[in-house]
Structures are given as structure tokens and as C-alpha cells.
Fold:
Amino acid sequence: MLKIILPTIMLIPLTWLSKNSMVWINTTAHSFMITLLGLPLLNQFNDNSLNMSLTYFSDSLSTPLLMLSMWLLPLMIIASQFHLTKESYTRKKLYITMLIMLQIFLIMTFTATELIFFYILFEATLVPTLIIITRWGGQTERLNAGLYFLFYTLVGSLPLLIALIYTQNTTGSLNILLTQHWSKPLAESWSNNLLWLACMMAFMVKMPLYGLHLWLPKAHVEAPIAGSMVLAAVLLKLGGYGMLRITVMLNPTTSSMAYPFMMLSLWGMIMTSSICLRQTDLKSLIAYSSVSHMALVIVAIMIQTPWSYMGATALMIAHGLTSSMLFCLANSNYERIHSRTMILARGLQTILPLMAAWWLAASLTNLALPPSINLIGELFVVMSTFSWSSLSIVLMGINITITALYSLYMLIMTQRGKQTPHINNLPPSYTRENTLMAMHLLPLLLLSMNPKIILGTLY
Amino acid sequence: MNPFALIIIMLTVVLGTLIVMTSSHWLMVWIGFEMNMLAIIPILMKKYNPRSMEACTKYFLTQATASMLLMLAITINLVHSGQWSTMKPLDPTASIVMTLAMAMKLGLAPFHFWVPEVAQGIQLSSGLILLTWQKLAPMSILYQISPTINSTLILTLSILSVAVGGWGGLNQTQLRKIMAYSSIAHMGWMTAAMMFSPMMALLNLVIYIILTTTTLMMFMMNSTTTTLSLSHTWNKTPLLTTAILATLLSLGGLPPLSGFLPKWMIIQELTKNDNIILPTFMVITALLNLFFYMRLTYSTSLTTFPSTNNMKLKWQLNPTKTTIYLPPLIILSTLILPLSPMLILLE
Structure:
């Protein structure tokens, strides 16, 4: 794994020592090369993991997420070029350095073997994200957004630290590969219930669970484009990944403790989807749609069946790419009209036809159109939830309908209909933006042909 | 101050602390404390104004009372055990009184009231010595008597200190008071560790001293004592804004910075001894500390704080302050966490 981590660390000197005119080119090109370096990891065993060293390993669950975060770094850099044009080169390099630092921590998080190492890096991802949101966000509300983001996550995750250290003292090791085979069933007791809560709340806040989701709309809306992309695509999946790893140690308490969170998620996904129908702010709509999709992932992980784990993993990857693409599209709007209000720029299909094609593709994948991997994920989750409880099909069906409703609402509101008169002289789409959308869409389409790689460990 | 006088006084401060740390006779320990306290009074009084006189008087009164309590503890120990050696275990009553004396010297709650007020009334450089060097002697005494410390007492001191340090700092804008409440909270963490593993308390002390020295030296470089003047750092030394951000986040205990290491180790020691509720409470109150450090970073590094236009036109003069210690200190205060496996050397 050092063959990926060291080049990523060396991207920082590359940023600072590049000539000013070559900063964007160098960083984008080299981060693409690092992504290429990571592709061989996709050659996974069926029932085992690739163990690189004592500290790093990659199995079928962490590799798709790792690939997603590595793929996203060049896309984030491409997406940030416009809003940083007026800044001095030092500030541009600082911004790119923050993105690269975040990437280093993410790569190490997804490949960490030991859970405390995972925890330290999980927390470490907070600092660059906080700096990106608070320093480079657009509006005054970003200060509040950064505080909410930091403190919600920390209040959830500090009990996780204590729970992990306690588990290490009782079971002797927190190595993920060992806990799979060593974990004893937890006895039924109040303290084990509290242990379960301490372990899971950090990831619930990160996902986010419906009742703890207040930080997400704030953070997503106020973050600059790269911040929104990485938040939606990768940082939320840290919660899912952590939950998938740690539930191995928490049986059978999960089957009794999971009910409140399942209820919150099942209800929350409908609530947040419905809120999407009433949003005026485009980024806020996409943020709430993220909460809704992640609620499906939480339900899937709580059920703990093979199909639901497969669905959760597939949904995480699919949602990461889709949500990031939607944020890029919303940002392309924002760069032109400097407002996130949806109704200000309508009928964009007439003015920017190629961008309308990307909007269509993104909205269709968001509402889980077959044969995209979004559908595979959602379908697996719906099927496994139905087998858990037949009544849930009602809630899931309502959610799918409302998801389709707001995705099409977003599409029709921004693209179709008569254009507002003042958008006639918007600049046309840049090649950079089209590249960005194509880079998001291509993995989505190609993965639909071979979803085996994103179906996780239980395939 | 006259340089010769300053050297003699500083050496007396150092000598006092060294006598405390290295003597085997309890009376010499008391003498060391008195020497230390008397010598530091002129340092606290570098400027002649009523505010520093008030700070010095408060410091003198509390430290003298604490020294008298120390003398009482030594006498009780003498009565019960008949000897003055520091190597032998202390009598339990003497241990309680001595812990209270050290708590007063360190500024642990509920004896913390002097810390913010003394820290506020003195120069930044004197504040540096007060908050870092002056903690060495009492902590060394606590380390020596740690086998016999009454755990209820030290637990109470620790819980109260982290709570007071967290909540007390929330309403402050003066940087010296913020550092004082930060010191109270960190002392609370150290005494909690002292119950089970004095070595981790020393680790916390060392890293706390490095972090506080870095922070106060950065404040001295800017000559700032208020949040408002700290927010002008972007104009004076832009590079320092990043350093202040990193150091303050490290003080707050965020991974992957150094400040996380003592918290992690202390939580590990506490959970090894089946103490789960205490570290949970301590980490949650540490978040209060993090909040007011975040407020400082918000005004300094992460935003351009509103200021009047003539504050934005500072003269860029040649720097005259010695900043040679600052770069290695900044590195030490942010990048030590990967060296944590070296703690195995402590075994």
C-alpha cells in the first residue's frame, strides 16, 4: 500500500514546487496516475483479502471505496479550478494541499488493519475538511456549518475511542482480520448495550442517521465544490465502512439494539426525500437526497444478511459517484449565476444542451434506473428488507417513488420548460466541466456491466 | 530588568524546582518550593502597575498557603512515621494534605481561582514560565507520592478540573485567561492519569508543556493578548496563522496531531483499569476546550476577522523578536503522534 500512499504524500511537494502555470495540470495528471496505480487492487480473492503488511490490507469491501476516493481526487481538483481563479497562487496551493492531505488520510483509513489506526485517521479526515469548508466556503453560514460538522462527529466518535480501547483490553487485538475469526458473542447486558451504542454512534452520525443529520445540509451547502464532492462521495461512506467492519464484533447485540436505528432510518428516508420536494436550494436538495440514500445503507447494515451487505456496498459506491456528479452539476450552475436557487435558471437545456444530457444521466442514476449500479444496490436492499419484514415494502416503495419524484423535479425545474430570460448570455460549457461529468458517469456505466467488484465481501 | 539580577533570579527559580525534584528530605522539598515562589515574584512583576501587583499578591498568597499545607503534611508524616525521607511511603493523612497542597500549587479545581487572574495580570513571557515551568515541581511531588494518593480525592480534583477548565474558558476572549483555563483542564487530565499510571501523567505534562510553550511563544511573537489582536495575524505574519491553527487544534486533542497522544494514552490506562465512565466524561468536557480553541482559530486563521481599515495597514518593520525556538516547537507540537510506538521504551 505504500506504493499508493507515498506518491500521494509526494503530491504535496509537487503542488508547492510546480511552476505557477503548471499547478493544476501537474496535480491533476499525477493524481490520475496514482489512481491507475491502485487499479490492480481490484483483483480480489473471493473469500480472502490482499494483505499488504501488518498495517495495511485491502479486501473486496475496502477496495471499491479506496478506488472511489482515489478517482475523486483528480475530479475534485478539476472541479475547483474555476472558483479559485481569483486567489493567489499560495492560496491555490494551500487548497490543493488540503485536498491531498484529505486523500492521504482517506487512503490510509480505507486500508487500515487495526481499528485504532482506523479511528485516528477517521478523525484526521475531519481537520482538512473543516479547513476546506470554513476557509473556502462561500457564505457566512459556513462558520456554523464547520462547527456543527466538527462537533457532531466528535461527540459521536470519542465514545468510539473508549469502546475500541475497552474491546482491545478484553479481546486482545483490534486487527480486523483477527476479529473476524476471534469475536465471541456479546452477552446480553446493559453495559454491552452501551458498548454497542458507543461503537455505532460515531458511524451513525457520519452516515448520517436521520435524527443526527443536522450537520449534513449545512456542511454540504456551505462547502466549496471539492468539499461537497468529497463529503458526499467518500466521507459519508466512512460511516458505512466503519459500521460494516465493526458489526463483526458486535453480534448478537445488533439484532436487539438495531430496532430504533432501523425505525429512524426507515422513517427518515421518507422524511428527507419529502423535504427534497420542497427545497429551493439546489445543493440542499442534493444533500437531503444523500441523507435519504444513506438511510437505506443504514437499514441494510442493520439487517446483516448477505444480500443486504452486498446492496449496502453497491449503494455506497453508486451513490458516491452519483451524488458527486450532482454536486458538480449544481456547481456548474452556481458558477454561472452565483446562486443556488433552482428556479433562477430554468430551461437550461436550450442554452447548454450537452450539460442537459449530463443532468439527465445524473438524475436517472439518482432515481436508480436499471441497469445502473444504483438500482442493484437499492434492489438488493429492498429485497433483503422485505425478507426481514414484509411491511417495510410499503415504506421502501414510497421512498423509491418520492426519490423518482424529486430527481425528476430537479431535472425538469432546471433543464426543461421555457428558459428564464436572463440566462440567454450564460457562457457555454467548458471542456473541463464536460470532462468532469464524463469522468463521473463512465465508472457508473462501466460498473453496471460488471458489478461484481462493488458487491463487497459476501458476493 | 537589570540583566544580572534577571539571571540570578531565573537561576534561583530553576534551582528551586531542581531542589524539589531531587531532594530526599522533605524539608528540602519545602525549601525548594519557597525558593521557587520567592524568586518568581519579581519575574511576575516585570511591569510596575497595580494589575501586576494584584496578580503577584494573589500568586504569593495562594502559593504560600499551599507551602504551609505542604509543611503540615510533612509534619504529620514526621509524627506518624518518625522520618523525613521522601523515599518511604507517606502516611495516608499526610498524603491527603500533601495532595491538597499540590492541587493548590497546580491550580486544580476547586483551588483554581487564582490561575486566570494571575495569568491575566502578568506579561506573556512571565505567563509562559508560570504555566509551564511552575507545573514541574508540584507534578514531580505528585509523581513521587503517587502510590499513596487517596484515589477519591484525586478523582474529585480531576473531574472538577476538567469541568471547570472546559466551561470556564467558554466566556473568555483574553488569550492569557484562555491559556489559564486550558492549563486547569490539562492538569485535570494529568491527575486522572496519576491514579493509575504516573508515567502517562508525565507524558501528558511534557506534551502539554511543549504545546503551551509553542502557543505562548506564538502569542509573544505577535505581541497579542486578546482574540481581536490575534485576528490581525494575517497581516503581520501570515505563515503564523497556519501554525496557530495547527497548534491550537493540537491543544484541543484532535488526531492526528500530538495533543491526541496523551489523551489516547490516558484513556488507555483508565480503561485498562475498568474505568469507563470517567474517560467518557473527560473526553466530552475536552470538547468544550476544543470549542474555544476553534473559536480562536476561526477568528485567526480560517476567516478574515472584521477589523478597522487602519488596522489593516500595519507597518512591516524588520522583525526583532527571537523566534529561533519556534519552528522545532511547532514541529514537536503537531507531528509527534507517529512516534507513539516509542512509548514502549517506557516499559
